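Internal tracking record. Fields below are filled automatically when a chain is submitted to the structure queue. Please do not edit lines marked as system-generated. If the sequence contains nonstandard residues, flag them in the REMARKS field before resubmitting.
Queue: standard
Priority: normal
Entity type: single polypeptide chain
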Amino acid sequence: MSKIFFLIFPFECSAEIISRPGTEAVLKGLSMSIRPGQHVAICGRSGSGKTSLILSLLQMIHVPEGKITLDGVDLSTITRENICSHINVVSQDPLLIPGTIRFNIDPSLAVSEVEVTQALRLVGLWTMVQDQAGLNKDIDTKAWSAGQKQLLCLARAIVKKAKILVLDEAMSRSVFLDACVIILTLQY
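SYSTEM-GENERATED OUTPUT FOLLOWS
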């Protein structure tokens, strides 16, 4: 499976990455540079370090040697919250939050209802949301398929407009892959 990165800012990585303290490095001698606007797929067998690379980008695992920079800034010098505000991660196992459909798409309530609706239309979920009584209805996660949940998270990525979009295991669902084309065309 693949990890796909879509970037607006330049990204540099020259590091050794350890997934758990006291263990050997998962990735050694890693060096990569991704230019703004470049689309990159990280592919490899299970256990090859793809997820560790994403987790290191999010500062969720330790990078004992080297550094990871985003737009020329060493990520070790800024807070995890600040990093996460610039990165969208849409995983194969989508995270939905208890609350309304609108809240799941825009937890900070930073965008207009029109923008939320447009994002839902782009990923093909607007009719379903209307059928379930609209944006302000509490989400019933049992009524949503795994693919629909993933598309809802993609709608969240559309409204967030982060500088980096990471699609984790995106190739696993063809519907999701089709929707990703929309994202690429619009902003990444």
